[in-house]
Structure formats: C-alpha cells, structure tokens
Amino acid sequence: MPVIAPMPAARPARLPNQRDGADDVVAAGTTVDHLTETYRTHYRSLLGLAALLLDDTASCEDVVQEAFIRVHSARKRVRDPEKTLAYLRQTVVNLSRSALRRRILGLKLLSKPMPDMASAEEGAYDQLERDSLIKAMKGLQRRQREVLVLRYFADMTEAQVAETLGISLGSVKAYGSRGIAALRLAMEAPA
C-alpha cells in the first residue's frame, strides 16, 4: 500500500496579525503525518465507497488516489484534522460523479453511427456524372432548362413553375417531358 511522502519542512506560516518579534505560531491545518495515518486507516473504506459508486476496480483506485492527492495539496485549508476524513469522502464522491459523467458522455458520442463515406472512385464517378449532366443541361432549349431546374433542382410543383415562368400548366408539362427526353438522349450518347 503506497504511503504519501511527506513534503520538505517549510517555514511555519504566520497568522496575518503577527509581527516578526512574536512567537512563531503555525497556522492550523492537516499535517502530512495525520494525512498519512488517515491513508493507512481509511484507504480500504474509501475504496469501498468508490466501488459502490463506480463499477470497475481501476477507476475506484484512481478516484481514491486522486482524492488523497487533492487533500494533500489542500491540507492547509482543512483546518480541523478531525474533518479530514469527511473531506476525503466528499472528494471521492465528487470524483466518482465526474468519472461517471465522462463515461456517459463517451457512450453518447460512441453510440452515434458514423456516416457512410463514399469511396474515392464513387466520388470521381459522381463528379463525372454531374459534369455530363451540366453539359447536357446546357444543350437544352432555354424553356426546357428553366422548367427542369425549377421543377427538380428548386423542388417546385408544376403549378409553382407555371406561375414563376408565367406560362400555362400544360406548357410546363410539355417542356418538362421534352427536356427529360432530350437529357436521356444526351446522357446515353457516347462522349
């Protein structure tokens, strides 16, 4: 079982209203020795607490070790050594919650399926088809091209196309069917 190594001795902290000539008074706080003893005594119980909150042993050990590291770093803020264990328990609970949040977020991100990506060959083939379609569209009569673009690329109804171009509904149908027939011929013809 690892033991927290004591930090090198530092000058004792002074209280804010103390002068240089007065007796040295150490600020209250948890000592390294007390924290080491707390570690020896309560490590297994804190590990059990983490095990109730998390499901795998490695995460439980990581959480408890991180809790001791955090308490060690903030030991001067834990003024009453009797509250060290309570502070450790609360830190274990908070770190366990954070670990669970990270897991849930990871599962949400992993559960989204990746979109199917086209292969390079498919992309090149699609580009060739688009190029030949654009070339064929340019070969159509102006009205046929207008009707097909509004009907199929702008996704308008035949009535909307008729209103937009100012022509009758029958003309839209006629230009559309002739335009599609001309596109079929142009697309099937060898380039």
Automatic annotation (TrEMBL):
Residues 131-183 form the RNA polymerase sigma factor 70 region 4 type domain. Keywords: DNA-binding, Sigma factor, Transcription, Transcription regulation. It holds the Pfam family Sigma70_r2. Residues 39-103 form the RNA polymerase sigma-70 region domain. GO terms for biological process: DNA-templated transcription initiation. GO terms for molecular function: DNA binding; sigma factor activity. It comes from the Bacteria. InterPro entries: RNA_pol_sigma-70-like, RNA_pol_sigma-70_dom, RNA_pol_sigma-E_actinobac, RNA_pol_sigma70_r2, RNA_pol_sigma70_r4_t2, RNA_pol_sigma_r2, RNA_pol_sigma_r3/r4-like, WH-like_DNA-bd_sf. Belongs to the sigma-70 factor family. ECF subfamily. This is SigE family RNA polymerase sigma factor. It comes from Streptomyces chromofuscus. The lineage of its organism: Bacteria, Bacillati, Actinomycetota, Actinomycetes, Kitasatosporales.
